[in-house]
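hey
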């Protein structure tokens, strides 16, 4: 049976926000031309549609519904695209981005270090067959005792408090954004993996480092999933947002800045995972403590490799390296997950960091301690033969940790009310910052 449509008259006041009117000629040359142009003319097309509609007598007949739907659909698509862009750019500090700041002639320094990197950096990698894997610490899903193993894991995790879970989830999400970190390393001039499978020492290191780090997020993710204590969908959304947003560490495609940043960051994650291991033990979860200690050991090994690279740069180019160190510290070392977002909390990273600071997992004092450690590791106070700018940078970096600790002491001494907020990762339960 054929369905026959009766003519309808629909008041356009219902769609007043679109300023729709009655039927128009969809074959209008103006509309055809605008609609077939590139997307840059999309707004012009929308304006022409609205103008055609506005020229009518104020009512929409059934035959004009096609136009209404076209106009409405176009607006919805434009709105969706804009919302998508915003979702991957949550509110944040806007930095003026500088790119490719390393003078081209210094690329030769990194080319000359290829053989050195093979002998001194690649040795800090572990063969796959000798490496631990996430399955070594988790219930075996192929085992008949799998369900009992999961029950035991869940029993151990029962006493873990919510604030600890927030920090553990934040650490896990940071590890899961690994694609961003490999991308960042591969933007650095002179050391990037040019083909995706380059045999250079720098490229081999970046890929193998990524492969080793990849186990960290996998292990923590599966552990948290099995506990049943967290909202995995919200966590998974946060990971997707974070990878989509990227990171802005202010390293300017410059491997001097990049390797100083990674030296600092690897030590920061070593400290953070080490402290979560201690707290897990205090809360009676020995398996989780072992997991966090194992990840911390990896971070320590990677820290050794990156600090070795910078040590070599100080040997080859002390002035350029100390200038880069000072530059990185003036900017502040931003954590890799500083663009973290869960679709709800615009200040998610700041709030997660506040909880981590309160628990002593990663604090301002730790930041200062890392700086002191690197100054000693690279013998900055003993550097000689520097330019006047190099000496100023040397003085700045060598005295910075003490200034940070003094400032933190003043802040800690102030009376302030600690707010409590919900975290979507733990089903919106409230946690003190």
């Amino acid at each position: 049976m054929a369905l026959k449509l009766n003519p309808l008259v629909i008041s356009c006041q219902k769609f007043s926000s679109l300023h729709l009117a009655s039927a128009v000629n969809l074959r209008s040359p103006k509309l055809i031309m605008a609609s077939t142009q590139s997307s840059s003319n999309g707004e012009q097309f929308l304006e022409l549609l609205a103008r055609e509609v506005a020229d009518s007598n104020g009512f929409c007949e059934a035959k004009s519904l096609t136009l209404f739907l076209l106009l409405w659909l176009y607006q919805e698509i434009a709105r969706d695209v804009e919302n998508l862009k915003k979702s991957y750019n949550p509110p944040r500090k806007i930095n003026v981005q500088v790119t490719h700041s390393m003078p081209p002639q210094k690329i030769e320094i990194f080319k000359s270090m290829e053989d050195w990197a093979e002998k001194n950096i690649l040795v800090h990698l572990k063969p796959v067959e000798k490496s631990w894997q996430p399955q070594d610490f988790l219930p075996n899903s192929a085992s008949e005792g799998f369900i009992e193993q999961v029950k035991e894991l869940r029993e151990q995790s029962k006493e873990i408090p919510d604030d600890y879970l927030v920090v553990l989830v934040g650490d896990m999400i940071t590890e899961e954004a690994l694609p961003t970190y490999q991308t960042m390393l591969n933007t650095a001039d002179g050391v990037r993996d040019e083909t995706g499978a380059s045999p250079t020492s720098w490229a081999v290191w970046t890929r193998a480092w990524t492969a080793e780090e990849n186990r960290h997020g996998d292990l923590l993710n599966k552990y948290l999933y099995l506990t049943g204590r967290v909202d995995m969908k919200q966590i998974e959304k946060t990971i997707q947002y974070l990878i989509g947003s990227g990171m802005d560490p202010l390293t300017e495609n410059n491997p001097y800045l990049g390797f100083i940043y990674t030296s600092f960051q690897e030590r920061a994650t070593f400290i953070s995972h080490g402290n979560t291991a201690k707290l897990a033990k205090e809360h009676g979860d020995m398996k989780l403590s072992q997991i966090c200690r194992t990840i911390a050991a990896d971070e320590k090994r990677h820290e050794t490799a990156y600090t070795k690279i910078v040590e070599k740069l100080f040997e080859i180019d002390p002035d350029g390296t100390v200038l880069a160190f000072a530059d990185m510290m003036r900017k502040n070392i931003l954590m890799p997950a500083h663009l973290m977002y869960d679709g709800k909390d615009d200040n998610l990273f700041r709030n997660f960091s506040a909880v981590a600071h309160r628990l002593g997992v990663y604090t301002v004092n730790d930041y200062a301690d890392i700086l002191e450690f690197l100054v000693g590791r690279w013998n900055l106070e003993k550097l000689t033969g520097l330019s006047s700018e190099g000496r100023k940078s040397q003085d700045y970096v060598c005295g910075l940790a003490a200034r940070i600790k003094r400032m933190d002491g003043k802040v800690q001494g102030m009376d302030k009310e600690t707010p409590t907020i919900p975290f979507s990762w733990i089903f919106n339960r409230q946690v003190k910052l």
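Confidence is low (pLDDT under 50) at residues 1-40. Residues 286-316 form the longest helix (31 residues).
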